[in-house]
Design a protein that fits this description.
With 557 residues, the chain is mainly alpha-helical. It contains 25 helices and no strands. It starts with a helix and ends with a helix. The relative contact order is 0.13.
């Protein structure tokens, strides 16, 4: 009797081991395939650049590359510095002082992530250009003659720095705020007992512990600046991304665009892997026993602190929304002949919004689905091989959107011309644009799933797919949702990839904004910009219910 029971159990165990090995091999193969596909655009750009004629290299080195490198580095350094100043200062005021309304400020200071920097640039141009809102007010209310009121110049390095910093400082604010909340209060108390003042304790204890989080956020800002195209194009500040687009759009021989892309990739790669290294270091430093923080009493400095936080919130969030809202109402209520030519109506904005949402949902879902394979391998099989796989999947992060679009244009135009200019190519390009974000977010979400839970399910005879469906996925779902939302928001705001890969007649909200702003028809750029911000803010507000998951995903992606 015992023998008749024992044999089926042995056979079940052997079958389970066979299924585990088969599913493990399938998972590894799928992960490797994703990694290979991820590096194809990067490899193709490098090959295309190295195959370019020597005369093209010489012309670019002598005329463009030094100036472009100087402009790009200057913009990156100044933006990183200002964003760090905004982010660290705001995080300290919100998290470690008795500032009123800390919970509200925490949410409000994260929402500028929903505003694309190129939209903010349009708003500032509307306000500060000659003949703009401020100039009109100065003439009508202050008595200035036309063209005599002194306006600040924003179409330069400092204008681009301020505009971009006001949109990207949450990349520093969110991880630094999370780090400040997680610090062990006993460390600061020990420093005070040793005789250090409050400011000395902040400088010698708290700041060194949050520096990895701040540096990781600053490197994400640097990657954003290196990849930005719309803002520098609007403000006419010439960097690599603008030059790449001009070379691609205006030249029959696109090898010059590939060469400039190759140089920009070299500049972005150190920032990419520096951010990954600091993210790992941050997880080691901030994992301490939490105690309620001892808040600093602002006293007579409280009004000044409220003014600083309120000013930062107004200029980063309130001013763009007020400007776009006012222009939207002006275009709808008092349309000009230009507005009628551009078909100002709700249906046009709705059509573009549906295109944007459908594209973003498809691309974000595809990126999260593909990223599951390498993320699972990295979490369940840590080692040199999985680290190389992760690096391959994250390599598109070193590619600005315009380079991703350019690489897919060149690839499909040469190897699959039948698909070139179709919606399929646009979705594929956007999926691989989002893949690094998705891989990092998925890896973070899957690390919270205990391997023992999966092993127990496999021991009970569950297949790998069934174990993932019934055990892994439910536990990791909040983190995966946060990653999907971040990919969705990124896809909604993406401009250069969509401009280069969209099929004829397929307009999204960013494309409509770009076309209208390029023609200086700002009443037509405002409605799609307002709709874009409304959708992304609503999405971010939904995910703030999982605040910890969002902060962790943002600080690592």
């Amino acid at each position: 009797m015992k023998r008749t029971i024992f044999l089926p159990r042995a056979q079940t165990a052997r079958a389970s081991i066979t299924l585990w090995r088969a599913s493990s091999a399938a998972l590894g193969s799928a992960a490797v395939l994703v990694g290979i596909l991820a590096i194809v655009p990067l490899v193709y750009i490098v090959i295309r650049a190295l195959e370019a004629d020597a005369a093209v290299w010489e012309r670019l080195w002598s005329r463009q590359i030094p100036v472009l490198a100087g402009n790009t580095l200057a913009l990156t350094v100044t933006t990183v510095f200002l964003s760090a100043l905004f982010g660290i200062g705001a995080a300290w005021l919100v998290e470690r002082t008795d500032l009123p309304g800390a919970r509200v400020w925490r949410v409000m200071l994260a929402l500028p992530l929903a505003i694309p920097a190129y939209v903010a640039a349009i708003c500032w141009l509307i306000l500060l250009r000659r003949g703009g809102v401020v100039d009109q007010v100065a003439m009508e209310w202050l008595g200035f003659a036309r063209g005599t009121f002194p306006l600040p110049q924003i179409t330069n390095l400092w204008g681009a720095t301020i505009v971009i910093s006001l949109c990207v400082f949450p990349y520093v604010f969110l991880p630094v705020g999370a780090a400040l909340r997680s610090l062990d209060r006993s460390l600061e108390e020990a420093a005070r007992i040793a005789g250090l003042s409050a400011w000395a304790t902040l400088r010698r204890v708290a700041l060194p512990l949050i520096m990895p989080a701040a540096a990781g956020g600053a490197l994400l800002v640097a990657l954003y600046v290196l990849s930005d195209f719309g803002t520098v194009a609007m403000l006419r500040y010439r960097t690599f991304t603008l030059a790449i687009f001009q070379q691609f759009a205006g030249q029959v021989d696109r090898s010059a665009a590939a060469i400039l892309s190759f140089i920009l990739i070299g500049m972005a790669t150190p920032a990419l892997y520096g951010a990954a290294w600091l993210a790992r270091r941050e997880r080691q430093v901030t994992r301490t026993r939490w105690q309620p923080p001892r808040l600093v009493h602002l006293g007579r400095w409280r009004p000044l602190a409220l003014l600083a936080i309120g000013g930062l919130t107004f200029f980063s969030l309130g001013l763009p929304l007020l400007t776009l809202g006012g222009l939207t109402l002006q275009g709808w209520l008092f349309p000009t002949e230009v507005d009628r030519i551009w078909e100002v109506n709700n249906a046009g904005v709705l059509r573009h919004a549906l295109n944007s949402v459908g594209l973003a949902v498809t691309a974000a879902t595809g990126a999260i689905a593909l990223a599951i394979f390498p993320a699972l391998v990295a979490v369940r099989r840590p080692g040199r091989w999985s680290s190389l796989l992760l690096a391959a999947c994250q390599s598109p992060f070193a590619l600005p959107g315009i380079i991703v679009g350019l690489s897919f244009v060149l690839l499909f135009n040469r190897w699959m011309p039948a698909l070139y200019g179709t919606l399929v190519v646009l979705v594929i390009g956007l999926v691989f644009r989002l893949l690094p974000q998705a891989v990092t977010a998925n890896e973070s979400a899957l690390r919270i799933v205990s391997p023992s839970l999966e092993q127990a399910a496999r021991t009970l005879g569950q297949s790998g797919a069934r174990t993932f469906q019934r055990v892994t996925l439910p536990v990791a779902a909040p983190g995966l949702l946060a990653g999907w939302v971040l990919c969705f928001v990124t896809a909604m705001k993406e401009l250069p990839t969509v401009i280069l890969l969209r099929p004829p007649g397929f307009d999204t909200l960013p494309v409509r904004i770009w076309v209208a702003a390029s023609e200086s028809v700002h009443t037509q750029a405002a409605p799609p910009a307002f709709a874009l911000i409304a959708v992304t803010i609503a999405t971010l507000l939904l995910v703030t219910r999982y605040r910890a998951g969002m902060e962790k995903a943002l600080s690592q992606s």
